[in-house]
Amino acid sequence: MSAPQRKPSTDVQKDASMAKQKAMIDGNFDRLGNVKNTGEKVSYTFVPGNLNELIMCFDMVGNYPEINAIQNGLRKKSGGMIMEAEKWGHSEDVCTYVKADIGMMRKGNIGPTGQPIPEPDILMLSYTGCYTFLKWFELLRHDYKCETAMLHVPYTGDGVITKAMTDYVVKQLKEEVIPKYEKVSGVKFDIDRLRENLAHSAKAEDDFVWVLESAKNKPSPIDAYFGGIYYIGPIFTAFRGTDLAVDYYKTLRAEIEERIRKGQGPITPEGEMKNEKYRIVTEGPPNYTSMREFWKMFYDEGAVVVASTYTKVGGTYDFGFRHDPSRPLESLAEYCMHCYTNRNLPERTRMLETYINDYEADGLLINSIKSCNSFAAGELMMMREVEKRTGKPAAFVETDLVDPRYFSAANVKNRLESYFQMIDQKRRAGV
Amino acid sequence: MATREEITNRCQALYDDLDFTAARKWKDAEPGRHVIGYMPMYVPREIIHAAGMMPLGILGGGDQLEVIQGDAYYQSYICRIPRSTIELLLTDRLDFVDGMLFPSICDVIRNLSGMWKLLRPDVYAHYFDVPQNYMRDVGGEFYIHELNVLKEDLEKISGNKVTNEALKNSIELYNENRRLTRKLYKFRADYPWLAPSSEVYLINRAGMVIPVEDHNILITDYIDAAKQEDRPKRDNSRVVISGSFCEQPPINLIKSIEISGCYVVDDDYMLVNRWFAKPVPTDIDPMQALSYTFLEASVKMPSCFEPNEDIKGQFLVDLVRETNAEGVIFAAASFCDPALLERPILQDVLNQVDIPHISFKYAENTGQMQPIREQAGTFADSIKLWS
Lengths: 431, 387
Ligand code: SF4
Ligand code: SF4
Fold this sequence. Notes:
Chain A has 431 residues and is of the alpha/beta class. Chain A has helices at 16-33, 35-38, 52-56, 65-74, 78-87, 96-106, 132-144, 163-185, 191-213, 226-236, 243-262, 291-299, 328-338, 345-358, 373-376, 379-390, 409-428, and strands at 42-44, 61-63, 122-127, 147-152, 267-268, 271-272, 278-283, 303-308, 363-369, 394-399.
């Protein structure tokens, strides 16, 4: 049943957009590593519910601890950092992003690219969709003793965003977040600057959604999970609201238009995936420490991920949300509340069901993350629901984000192979 | 008057009863009565009461419930309380419950609210958000809105209008409940040999499943009865338990800590019974009163943000000093994010003032007490040795 094996290559094949993105991310690490000389102030924040457009209004450079953990995971550095944090009393049971971050700090705060990560001048605790965030920045604040701005983003427990919820977030922006940023940066808040940034965001978001939805083509020109991780990079982090991001998504879109025109499949680390056999929807984050190995288990079998929920943690743009310069603060509030893990389980389930139908997928694969309750608690229930509603088979694998101890390649591979067989059987049975 | 033993036996029976017979009986006693379940950590029970309903605290299935179906809903790396709670639901033990509230304690309980909606679309299931911003005009206003939403929802279910007068009456009853619970804790801290931790636990726990009016009498009776008895005072070490605010340790574990030579002089079990450090005022608008008291007088626990780093964790030091405790036992449910993520900060704060501590994890169905007994025993001995 396997597609012809390719020889594993050592170099990841890169498109122009990938190179562009790498330069952007490296540039931000350079900027962070250089603040001693430039005097720039540093703001730490999270991907879900990040307020990049606002933070840029204060001329600050953004550091994203989750991204550091990911980058350290991809470079196989996170394992040692996690163990370092555990040595300092952090439980083996909790989120490994936090421990990778704290371990990095304890080991001298040298970032993934080898440059120093500066201490924060402000921690922007955007409490959006994940309880761990609350503790994470309390832990960092305990060490750094720095200013901390708390933004409580109400969870959409009843599946709706009410006016009271939006008003609450906007008030916090006005009375808590903006004053603290003005104080730390010494820069006065200018709402027109925010509007301008938001307009950039909306432009990039249009192209980003187009890219995600290109997976509706057959064959899909993108992989919306493994490849998707690269596509979300700029829009989920320090670049949303910049010209650079607008430009990046324009380039990316053009590349993908070209792929569609040529009828090509997605680019993988070993070149183009030629024979699309399975179209899969995924729920949950990936594993970063063995990402290439994990991805290979898919493309070797001709499996492409056509939609994933992970690429919605920093915003569910494909369900219509856009940053809106005409309602700047309200729009930021709504953005936060729209993030994937801030949606209740029935909504998350509905999203998966919609993806299976709209992307004509063969089934659902859940990669459940051992140390992430925000995603994982309830995933088994979601799996059953989606199976019931769509009649498509689902499978469940368990790994971790950045803790290499919890990636068992043999187990995952077995699971995946039986899953693909199950899809074959269903097809033969005409289901 | 009932004896101490009779009172604790009654509470033990309530604790053992996984069918919630007392609450069922309360509901059946009059037509039109309703029961609203709630998970840890805090819900404004006053509003439920003022709607003529009974709040019912659901704290999982303990060590006596065989979890069969619940395990199919949760991976092994998620704590146990949600799976045993699902088991209670799927085995119809909660079939008399007219609605469920899921407070914003962590992502597991949060997501459980959605599972409830999917499993029982016909039953009211509400994620109850509390503010993490403590300014009256920001978090306070948002919270008043949430309280009113809850009030309206409960009015619909009960068919009863929640009047300000009813709310004030309920606030008074719960003020009394909190006052009595604090009195019980103070009594135990002063005379731990007269009020063993396992008994105080059962008295406290009874408040989850019986009407507040009964619970107020129960606490008073217990304190009165316990005072009358002469029980031997041991040379135990005085400890505070921290981290057990959600999934509950089995009662045998609570007993084991005591048997190993510790007097537990404070803990964080069922914080809802003592959530406010001061009474909720009854001379202002009730929703404002509930909201502002929440902002300004809530207990400190990991699910609530502490805006002031200077006092982060200080509550635990204060508690140790107020109760003359000699050490802290961090006892957290396995995989409990709030307890386990908070722990390093609290440990650091204790280290700075040389308060000794140990930590272990448990599950609600932990059966092996020996390791915990040994650990707590060694801790108690070392406190005696070094103090
Ligand atoms: S969403 Fe999951 S992985 Fe991300 S910080 Fe929260 S617990 Fe950790
Ligand atoms: S035990 Fe901890 S993690 Fe589990 S539901 Fe309770 S608070 Fe959440």
